[in-house]
Amino acid sequence: MTGNDFSYRDKKVMSIGIVKELTGLSERQIRYYEKRKLIFPDRTTTGIRKYSFSDVDRLMEIADKIEEGVQTHEIRSELAKRDEKQKTKEVREQMIKGQLNAHFHYRKL
Question: Per the database record, which ranges form the HTH merR-type domain (predicted)?
């Protein structure tokens, strides 16, 4: 995704306290999932973690899988495959848009 392509769901604007309230997870659990490379919050210049609504959804999915007995390394592998598939889809869509724009001589004003 580039610049303006970000959905509001992907903007990292929430603190860990808000995420904790939304998910019902403890700060310790959220930090553990970050340590296990299951989520990737942004950090402010002062080191404060910032999360998106997409991160909240992902945390809820992780918590459900943990409850089902799935190991964190298995979750990480599954999420990595899904993320890669999504990136490939986005690149493909951008290529098609570029080809259509070139074909129809579209120019942004």
Answer: 13-81
